[in-house]
Known about the structure:
There is one protein chain. With 513 residues, the chain is of the alpha/beta class. It has one domain: TIM Barrel (Alpha-Beta Barrel). It is built from 17 helices and 15 strands. The chain has an 8-stranded parallel β-barrel, surrounded by 5 helices. The termini are far apart. The structure holds 2-acetamido-2-deoxy-beta-D-glucopyranose (NAG) (2 copies). One 2-acetamido-2-deoxy-beta-D-glucopyranose binds at residues 346, 348-349. One of its GO terms (biological process) is carbohydrate metabolic process.
Amino acid sequence: MMCLLKYWLLFLVLVLVAFADCKSRYNRHEIRKIPDGILFGTATASYQVEGAWDEDGKSENIWDRLTHSKPCPVKNCDTGDIADDSYHQYERDVEMMRELGLDFYRFSLSWSRILPTSFPDKINKKGVQYYNNLIDEMLKYNIQPMVTLYHWDLPQKLQDMGGWTNPHVVDWFTDYARIVFELFGDRVKYWFTINEPREVCYEGYGGANFAPAYNLSGYGDYMCAKNLLVAHAKAYHMYKNEFSRTQGGTVGIAASASWFEPKSEKDAEAAEDARQFEWGLYTNPIFSKNGDFPQVVKDRVAAKSFEQGFFRSRLPEFTPEEVELVKGSSDFLGINHYTSKITYRNASITTFPSPSFYDDIEALYDYDFTWETAASSWLKVVPWGFYKLLTKLRTDYDNPPIYITENGFSTRGGLEDDSRIAYYRQYIDAMLDAIDEGSDVRAYTAWSLMDNFEWRQGYTERFGLYEVDYEDPKRTRTARKSAYVYKEIIRSRQLDYHYEPDTTLPITIDDGQ
Ligand SMILES: *[C@@H]1O[C@H](CO)[C@@H](O)[C@H](O)[C@H]1NC(C)=O
Ligand SMILES: *[C@@H]1O[C@H](CO)[C@@H](O)[C@H](O)[C@H]1NC(C)=O
């Protein structure tokens, strides 16, 4: 009996030690200083916040088409028709940026609002005026605009011609980029060509989750990937050759990248394959030393394609000229990071149709049941995955300048959002760990400034530092507790797990203007 008790005590001590050890990694700094020079901001995207979907000459885009289709494919039949009404409320949006004390705000442009025909033959003055108003209002208060040219809302007309699967999209996108640089480049110094190529190509063309919901896994996604990368690179070089000297801005891309952790040692290869297919497909051609699609992706898709009876790989090849064009075509690497997945391989489990993108990867995903989940089922809280991702990007791509272009947590609403606060603190802490080890992170962006249209989930998943009241025609915005905490992180340039804001006081503007 005594002996059993002793073992129990020993066991208890071990559990406590293990627990303390795993807590300490992210709570070890009472107050942690944030290195000088890192910019802090928040982000949104045009379709998710603007509303005014058919106002002032804007034409239909692929998200208008999808959300208006029957039966409605979005939770609660929500649409972005009105969204946060930012088209009319940009002044309030900038006021919130001032309340938070942001260094920058990242937003995207609606292609079909600026070019209703999709092409440069007709520029919509009123649409341009909206973005001029927003940019000028931000600059009045020294908030830098960071502008994404494409955040998923392709003009429907271009989709009718195949969208990102049509190689002509390279010209369409470059022409649009030229107009945008000409219109706004005197004031905008940070450009992102395309937001989350993986979501554009896989979720839109490979799967059926996002517009245009082509559901052509293993073909459409790869065609899109190639065209998108060439379009990005052409726009990048156009800026460098024709605008850089007079405008002096910087241009990059914003890729989504989850961390894929092997389930066990023998799954290391499966996890690496997942990383290369899921984001290496888009980052390797730009940021690796040799460029081109990752070797493992090229080899796997080619081998499977021949086995399946194709005459050529389903993954289109870059010409040698295209490899050179795309290689190095970014001044920095933008990373949208939210979560991690456990990855493993088991040939006796056949879940995916063949051919398909996931059949090509030959990996299976899982979550650790101990991971906390956000309102979005895919969003598990795994701060160390962020650290591992940043470490890998640093080593694989020779330490490129990194902008964290999105990071955030969803709830079902409510102003007391302690789980969001915990998420931000732990993820920023993990980012600081990577910075301490040499990662060249230059900006951090919280997703999102306010609640907004969360794609197929409509307004059921809330990512905002500010809550938006969708029952109210005015779409009133109210600061959540996390807004106060983020503001204090930016103001003090430090991370203090014990800081408790007084949310009974209004959030105030402290920019002295
Ligand atoms: C997508 O296509 C597959 C066949 O490849 C089919 O089984 C599936 O139901 C389709 N999904 C949607 C949402 O259309
Ligand atoms: C693979 O999955 C099968 C079926 O679920 C299971 O019986 C087997 O143990 C798994 N193999 C490995 C190596 O995990």
